[in-house]
Amino acid sequence: MGIRKFFKNDFIKDFSTLFSGTLIASALPLLFSPIISRLYTPEQFGVFAIVSAVVSSISNVAGGRYEMAVMLPKKGSDSKALVRLAAFISLLISLLILLIIFLFKGDILKLLNAEILGNTIYIIPPLLWVMALFKPFNYWLNRNRLYSKNAIAKVVQGGGISIFTVLLGYWGLKDGLVFGYFSGWLAFIGLVLIFLSISGFFKEKISVDRIIRVARTYKQFPRLNVLSTFLNDTASHIIIFMITIFFTVEQTGYYNFSRQYLFVPLSLLSMTLSNVYFQRIAHKINTRESLKNEFSTIIKILLSIGIFVILIISTFGEDLFVFFFGESWKRSGELATILIFGFVFKFMISPFGQLLIALKRLKLALIFPVLYVILMLTLYFYRSVDFDLFIKMLVLFEVLAYSVYFVLTLYSLREYEKGILKR
Fold this sequence. Notes:
The protein has about 425 residues and is an all-alpha fold. The protein has 16 helices and no strands.
């Protein structure tokens, strides 16, 4: 494939549109990070890590995973019904979490060894709902190929988080990281709602009967995908809780700082690629076309980026952290040179999980999160070791788990391609 033909490829054009927004959205927090790192302490980053871990563990399942079906219906009205269904379920879940916090706040903080969190814990329910709304709205925009609108909203989100975090830190608010993050998400959802309104999303009246019907039609998503996703997300963030309980909130802050400025930008890029990939393969699966070209394209992109990032961070990570963030974050730079291998592995393989969902191989998809949780829980036996050894074992288990995940996607792709040949 020539260079000109490569960039005329619809997949590449769609990806480039979303990627440009994601790149800017990721770059803005990075541009502000030298300021933010000097306004907040490692302990305050630890508090933010705890809130983020709780919300991130729940937000992806708060909508019952019905948002994952938004791309699939042939009728646009069914797609809109799924968006409304996911939004309503996530509201109920957020209210339930609020009730639990109200009743058991003290016990929760004691369990997490995070009494320092205090009343900031009440930000979790509204933040959870706002983040849960992102998924169905995001998939609906992508279904209708409104990639530029999605990109603009992400830029506003990244800019909002950065600006509010700096302002709140400058004003001396100790939990400015948490509230700045929440403010950026509010700006994002507000703008997306405007885009939805302009595109006519709210013009069509969607009946309760239709919502109930699509809930039944796609009931396999909450039945089979909620557990796997929850286990996956919990496993991804259980490390935050383990470090806080086994070590200190300060160590949690150092770890999360490395994660925030390395893995989060990578995961945003990975999510962007996943969204475009899912839209493309969902259409091809409906028309029973081969997926090999898309699979090959995404592998080349991910592998190229992954190798480049590993070379840079493993060689210069510590010096880069000191230069950009200050001497107080040297410890995070040391951890980054170890963590980058696990981060890049997750970045390169995560998008292929969309293939299992698009092919409705939900039972097969459950294998990975179960294995992942088991491996992460195994770290309990390393609770008394040196912190660096704990981190190395974490990376080893992540690489092992995601290797199995990739094998599962290859198996599913092969079975699908065999089915096409038999037609």
